């Protein structure tokens, strides 16, 4: 099938297989978080050790996603998807039957090696299968999978862990993974262009040290503290590795991850907006449950229910936003979406000790509605400016930066929250003592400290949401510079890339 025929009749059946595979893989990303305390008890491991179930998964993603541009170009989409889905299925089965904690961590890493390929592969197939004027709708449907699956994860796992064992989490995913794999084996065909490439081993090592080091360092900072040698050591190693990786890629004729795509202004701008928005989005996903469970003392399951309407709204809006993008372009959507995001984030910074359950749900849902109008349109507009040969690099770059910026943003905002909490706690206690109202009995002092601790934590969460509001405001300012990438611009970029190759 040539490109023209495919654009007239995209392979919907094949894309559906990929969607199911990607949905299952994305759902798996957040499914385990609620179950960590139960796993900790069963295997008698400490919180810092059990964290490796999420850290290990994330590290494998951080290492493999930058390399996905190479894999997507080197191997056929059929071979790559079947390999990725096989690894994911084997990892899921192993995790369900894991006799020890070490086996469970290894199983999660095998799962991650499969799921890391899903998003870049699916995005590349969408870019090849759909013409530029219909791409917004297609990417909008893809956004439904990308956003809804991880958001449903905590609610679903909260309910399962309350009623069944944590192994059921993997048991639910396994049949879907097997069915997708079997269907793909018989029905999947090749549509993405391939070329003979050699993997530069040094690039892979530098990329692993760079992205892996930064992800691990920033993700561990909240738990271990910034003063821990392992935290600042891995961040420094990651930063040095990343600089060396970028320099090497710029000097290579056929790089593993092409940083020259940043010469396309709309791609560079979309990348900057996506980074800033990822920081704001991930911070909300961490700070909201923290506030709901710690300050308002709402159970993890009900906290998941509170965040569910936001996930549903994002899922419903994603295809609608895609259609609006095809019709009107990204600028107006992004501006309206970011105004909503900024205002709702500001309202989250004003939550009090007794804010109502449904009020919090409403503000959080409105915020997710705002974010849903920005993410995919801005990203798609940036990718539209790249020549076809650079699509694998564009998708790999976007996915990598989202992971890294999400981890960095979450770590920094949690640190801001902790520091603010400590200073607020000290000030509140000093004020209570100065006023002469401080109790003298040990029991009274313990009760006062508990009250002041909750007040101080609320202050920290409010301040972090306020910083998040400023972050969203930065993204809003950047969207005023967005221009719609039209067909002629893309043809010009094709010509430019051919000229550069000559």
TrEMBL record:
Membrane-related topology note: Multi-pass membrane protein
Residue ranges annotated for the Major facilitator superfamily (MFS) profile domain, each copy included: 14-487
Major localization listed first in the record, in broad terms: membrane
Domain of life per record: Bacteria
Subcellular location per the Swiss-Prot or TrEMBL entry: Cell membrane
InterPro entries: EmrB-like, MFS, MFS_dom, MFS_trans_sf
Alphabetical list of Pfam families matching this protein: MFS_1 (PF07690)
Keywords, sorted A to Z: Cell membrane, Membrane, Transmembrane, Transmembrane helix, Transport
Transmembrane segments: 12-32, 52-72, 84-106, 112-132, 139-160, 166-186, 198-218, 230-247, 267-292, 332-349, 355-379, 461-482
Family: Belongs to the major facilitator superfamily. EmrB family.
Protein name: DHA2 family efflux MFS transporter permease subunit
């Amino acid at each position: 099938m040539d490109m023209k025929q495919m654009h007239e009749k995209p392979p919907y059946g094949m894309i559906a297989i990929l969607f199911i595979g990607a949905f299952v893989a994305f759902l798996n990303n957040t499914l385990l978080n609620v179950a960590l305390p139960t796993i900790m008890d069963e295997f008698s491991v400490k919180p810092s050790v059990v964290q490796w179930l999420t850290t290990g998964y994330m590290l494998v993603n951080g290492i493999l996603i930058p390399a996905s541009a190479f894999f997507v170009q080197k191997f056929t989409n059929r071979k790559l998807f079947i390999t990725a889905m096989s690894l994911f299925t084997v990892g899921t089965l192993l995790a369900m039957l894991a006799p020890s904690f070490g086996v469970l961590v290894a199983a999660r890493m095998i799962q991650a090696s499969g799921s890391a390929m899903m998003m870049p592969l699916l995005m590349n197939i969408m870019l090849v299968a759909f013409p530029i004027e219909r791409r917004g709708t297609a990417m909008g449907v893809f956004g439904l999978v990308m956003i809804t699956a991880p958001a449903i994860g905590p609610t679903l796992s909260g309910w399962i862990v309350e009623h069944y064992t944590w192994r059921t989490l993997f048991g639910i995913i396994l049949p879907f993974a097997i069915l997708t794999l079997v269907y793909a084996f018989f029905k999947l065909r090749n549509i993405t262009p391939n070329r003979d490439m050699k993997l530069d081993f040094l690039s892979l090592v530098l990329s692993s040290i760079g992205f892996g080091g930064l992800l691990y360092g920033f993700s561990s900072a909240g738990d271990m503290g910034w003063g821990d040698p392992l935290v600042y050591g891995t961040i420094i190693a990651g930063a040095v590795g990343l600089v060396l990786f970028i320099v090497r890629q710029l000097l290579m004729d056929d790089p593993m991850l092409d940083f020259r795509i940043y010469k396309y202004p709309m791609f560079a701008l979309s990348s900057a907006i996506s980074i800033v928005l990822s920081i704001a989005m991930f911070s909300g996903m961490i700070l909201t449950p923290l506030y709901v469970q710690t300050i308002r003392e709402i159970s993890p399951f009900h906290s998941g229910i509170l965040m569910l309407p936001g996930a549903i709204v994002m899922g419903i809006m994603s295809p609608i936003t895609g259609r609006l993008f095809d019709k009107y372009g990204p600028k107006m959507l992004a501006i309206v979406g970011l105004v909503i995001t900024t205002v709702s984030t500001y309202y989250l910074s004003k939550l009090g000790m007794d804010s109502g359950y449904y009020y919090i749900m409403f503000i959080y849902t409105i915020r997710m509605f705002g974010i849903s109008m920005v993410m995919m349109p801005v990203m798609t507009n940036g990718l539209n400016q790249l020549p076809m040969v650079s699509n694998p690099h564009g998708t790999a770059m976007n996915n990598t930066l989202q992971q890294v910026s999400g981890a960095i943003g979450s770590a920094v905002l949690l640190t801001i929250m902790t520091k603010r909490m400590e200073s607020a706690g000290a000030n509140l206690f000093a004020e209570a003592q100065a006023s002469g109202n401080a109790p003298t009995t040990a029991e009274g002092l313990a009760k006062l400290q508990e009250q002041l601790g909750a007040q101080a934590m609320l202050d920290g969460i409010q301040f972090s949401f306020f910083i998040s509001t400023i972050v969203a405001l930065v993204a809003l300012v950047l969207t005023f510079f967005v221009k719609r990438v039209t067909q002629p611009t893309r043809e010009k970029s094709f010509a430019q890339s051919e000229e550069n190759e000559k």
